[in-house]
Amino acid sequence: MIDFAPHDHDGCIASALAAAEEGCAARGLRLTDARRRVLEILLESHRALGAYDVLDRLRAEGRPAQPPLVYRALDFLVAQGFVHRIERLNAFVACARPGAEHAPAFLICRACEAVAEMPVAPEEGRLGSAARATGFALEATTLEAEGLCPNCRGAVA
Amino acid sequence: MIDFAPHDHDGCIASALAAAEEGCAARGLRLTDARRRVLEILLESHRALGAYDVLDRLRAEGRPAQPPLVYRALDFLVAQGFVHRIERLNAFVACARPGAEHAPAFLICRACEAVAEMPVAPEEGRLGSAARATGFALEATTLEAEGLCPNCRGAVA
DNA sequence: AGGGGAAGTGTTATACTATATCATCCGCTG
DNA sequence: CAGCGGATGATATAGTATAACACTTCCCCT
């Protein structure tokens, strides 16, 4: 999800899958059955899932999967930008803007566990200026925040 | 370390320990032997260590420690701001600016594994503006970047 | 069509990270 | 010195991730 507002969920699943298909085709890569199913599970659940949550769902569908299958699929999907890893949760979430070049930031609600993906430009942010100041060559960034989303903020109060 | 340059290491250990002592005293908390030793180990090693690395060092000193001891000490030190957790590494590093109010960012060298702590003001950065834009109440932030530090950058080239 | 290499998957085992639980100890306060 | 709360000891287990090797499938090339 991009922010904490409701949206057309079926539509976002379909377009994300289509974007993944296209991205793979364009790069000569294969969106195999296992990879596609893992991506679908993340899209359908629409939240951050641990690798073993994904594994459980695969097994619930009758697929006798093992951890390496899931981690390989996730590694692939993350490398291609179709899925993001949330470090604070040791979890994975489907990308909300597949196809777009981006290094996202995440807002994680500690009450409802929703994760919103925000577009940012890390090169131009604080990490970028810190890196330039010391001569550090930036290759990958993690920007995550935990707190209360607008919905839970009201509910708690 | 604050950046990737050499510095007075003995001095930084002593001042960090002193700051921790003072901080605990000021807040009516106890810097117990276990907590102090864990902090010293992180300061001496001067890099990010996993909880089990710390555990190994405690045991190497003849202390028959178990994982919960280390995690409890680390939780305390992190809560007090004397140690920071590096999410990308599942590791811990002694704070380079103890006492100062700060929400740090980290630059992690993938070659030499050095971790530099950079001062930033997250409320004013991209995460802060993203949070304000959606009504998200920011409580804790993680800003980490991986890449090549100035030293390794030269060595590889 | 068939050879052959690269990429992907199956399978087993294991390494690494973290916490639950309950008993015991220690230090302070009244 | 009794009692309380925080800290530690100890055992067990939960949760996350990868190593290693065998096998298959896809695809390209001839």
From TrEMBL, chains A, B:
Q: What does the record give under GO molecular function?
A: DNA-binding transcription factor activity; transcription cis-regulatory region binding; zinc ion binding
Q: Which residues bind Fe cation?
A: E124
- Give the record's keywords alphabetically: DNA-binding, Iron, Metal-binding, Repressor, Transcription, Transcription regulation, Zinc
* Amino-acid positions noted as binding Zn(2+) in the UniProt annotation, renumbered to this chain: C109, C112, C149, C152
Q: Gene3D superfamilies under this entry?
A: 3.30.1490.190, Winged helix-like DNA-binding domain superfamily/Winged helix DNA-binding domain
Report the co-factor binding details: Binds 1 Mn(2+) or Fe(2+) ion per subunit. Binds 1 zinc ion per subunit.
Example of a GO cellular component annotation carried by this entry: cytosol
What is one process in the GO biological process aspect for this record? Answer: regulation of secondary metabolite biosynthetic process
The protein's name in its UniProt record = Fur family zinc uptake transcriptional regulator
Species of origin: Hasllibacter halocynthiae
